[in-house]
């Protein structure tokens, strides 16, 4: 696989094969595209139930917080978040999402479970963890992560069409 550089990211967008909405040239980096934090995060409420069970509906344990005007994330808190950007990835590209090092340097780890398969359409769900002993301020619109696009050797025979296709906003686990 080959990583797309800035010129190729813009070309893919202009040609209409790669859709990022909204798109801004100012978010194109040398080998990635910066993505911004969405308006809501979800945290697991402590005390509601001390057990999270895979393949169970855990949505009732989530507390949604509007961060349009900012919010503090408590120490040792795990949150689900989303990007403001919607991505529509063609069947010959895949994507990897990484937290920006500026956030890592203040104790905020931004994870993405797996990578983004060819053919995925939707906003990107992020897993965010505050590893500091202090609160950290987050606000929607912050450039929180970056997506690296990789050109595969050919088109996928079976592009992504799974449980998270067309997701919008914070999306909980679908291990049901």
Keywords:
mainly beta; Deoxyuridine 5'-Triphosphate Nucleotidohydrolase, Chain A; two-stranded antiparallel sheet; 7% helix
Task: Reconstruct the topology from this structure.
Blueprint: E1 2-3, H1 6-14, E2 19-21, E3 33-44, E4 62-66, E5 71-73, E6 78-88, E7 93-99, H2 101-104, E8 108-111, E9 121-130, E10 136-138, E11 143-151
Antiparallel strand pairs: 1-11, 2-6, 3-4, 3-6, 3-11, 5-10, 6-9, 7-11, 8-9
Description:
There is one protein chain. The chain has a single domain, classed as Distorted Sandwich (Deoxyuridine 5'-Triphosphate Nucleotidohydrolase, Chain A), CATH 2.70.40. 7% of the residues lie in helices and 39% in strands. Strands 1, 2, 3, 4, 6, 7, 8, 9 and 11 form a nine-stranded antiparallel β-sheet that branches.
Q: Which stretches of 5+ consecutive residues score pLDDT under 50?
A: none
Kindly, what is the distance between the CA atoms of the first and last residues, rounded to a whole number of angstroms?
33 Å
Q: Please outline the major beta sheet.
A: 9 strands, antiparallel
| Total of helices | 2
Helix content: under 10%
In short:
The chain has 176 residues and is mostly beta strands. It has helices spanning 6-14, 101-104, and strands at 2-3, 19-21, 33-44, 62-66, 71-73, 78-88, 93-99, 108-111, 121-130, 136-138, 143-151. The model has no long low-confidence stretch (mean pLDDT 89).
């Amino acid at each position: 696989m080959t990583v797309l550089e800035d010129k190729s990211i813009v070309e893919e967008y202009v040609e209409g094969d790669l859709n990022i909405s909204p798109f801004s040239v100012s978010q194109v980096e040398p080998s990635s595209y910066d993505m911004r934090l969405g308006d809501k995060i979800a945290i697991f409420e402590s005390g509601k139930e001390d057990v999270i069970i895979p393949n169970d509906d855990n949505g009732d344990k989530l507390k949604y917080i509007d961060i349009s005007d900012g919010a503090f994330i408590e120490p040792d808190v795990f949150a689900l978040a989303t990007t403001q950007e919607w991505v529509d990835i063609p069947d010959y590209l895949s994507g990897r999402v990484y937290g920006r090092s500026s956030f890592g340097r203040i104790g905020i780890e931004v994870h993405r479970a797996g990578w983004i398969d060819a053919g995925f359409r939707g906003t990107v769900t992020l897993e965010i963890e505050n590893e500091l002993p202090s609160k950290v301020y987050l606000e929607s619109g912050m450039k929180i992560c970056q997506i690296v696009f990789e050109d595969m050797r050919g088109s996928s025979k079976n592009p992504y069409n799974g449980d998270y296709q067309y997701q919008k906003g914070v999306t909980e686990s679908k291990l049901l």
